[in-house]
Amino acid sequence: MIDDATGDEIGAVLRTNADKTEQGGRPAAESLEALRDDGLFGLRTPSEYGGGWASVETVARCLTRLGRACPSSAWVAGTCLTAKNIAVRNHLEGDLFADPDALWCGSGIPGGQGERGVGGVRISGRWPNVSGCEDAVWALLGVVVDGVFSFAVVPVADLAVERTWHMAGMCGTGSQTVVADDLLVPAERVATAAPFTTADLMLYSMTVLSPVVGATLGALDAVGAMFASDRKPFMTTYTRMGESAGARQWLAEATHLAHRAETTMLAVAHDTDTTELSENDSPRLHMDLADAARTCRSAMERMLDLHGASGFDTANALQRFWRDVAVGSRHPHLNPYLAVERYGTALTV
């Protein structure tokens, strides 16, 4: 877990470089260095290899804190721990964890085909939306090998990267497309995919929700700074924002919604760590996480109303947080209508 002093230091680095991250379309070198130096890329490296193998609740708290400063950087750290977790669950370890703090990327989409032969498995394919791929050392990729869904771990240096990530939000995640062309992968770095447990799925959902919750809290920081300034509601006789009862109510509602989303997320994380979850628990928990994501969007709407049109100035951090929440909260792990559909089905079976 990041202590307060360390968290403040990392947050300051990420916050300072957030615009650089967005403009470059990938985390700034200074941000990556800070995350690596403080073990954030090792959150889900097994302890026997020198990593933290952090609990789900610790992961959620750490990524939320990072997201409060730079959601894109937090997202890349989350992708790293997801890829490492899948590798461990599929017994793809050993020398792959020689550097416990190496940055990993990956995709669970079966975007490639593989064929076993002399010397290993030859794979070819395309995997879109691979966050952090331009800076990662290893890539964990879903691939169908001889008709069986599997995972392969390959050096990113052996892949081509196509810059296909052109999004309004989470711009700095560097979620480009990686391409393999008849790449020979040693047999020990390819494994038939093990079924995902409910606990695994909660962890993976947490890695996308936590940066979104962090972004919402970061936006709340920006709005709080506005209330502490001499800014006043335009075209009124008020001398400060806090003099307006309506503004105070909107601030209270935004704060309540942001904290409710965080509380809901942490409750699911705690249950994942402390309870033997079954497949039957998954619809309910996914419903909670999808609801938390929607709550973040509701909080953002109130904050944007408070700030007015100036909140959309490209120099204002609020609009970046808004775009990151809008895009990140719509990740497939947080799909609200499918969450409702699955929960409703579970309740009527």
From TrEMBL:
Query: What keywords are assigned to this protein?
Result: Oxidoreductase
List residues traversing the bilayer. Answer: none
- Annotated Acyl-CoA dehydrogenase/oxidase N-terminal domain residues: 13-82
Which part of the chain is the Acyl-CoA dehydrogenase C-terminal domain?
210-335
Q: Does the keyword Cell inner membrane apply?
A: no
Superkingdom of source: Bacteria
Q: Indicate the family of this protein.
A: Belongs to the HpaH/HsaA monooxygenase family.
Kindly provide the name given to this protein in its UniProt entry. Answer: Acyl-CoA dehydrogenase family protein
Which organism is this entry from?
Nocardia jiangxiensis
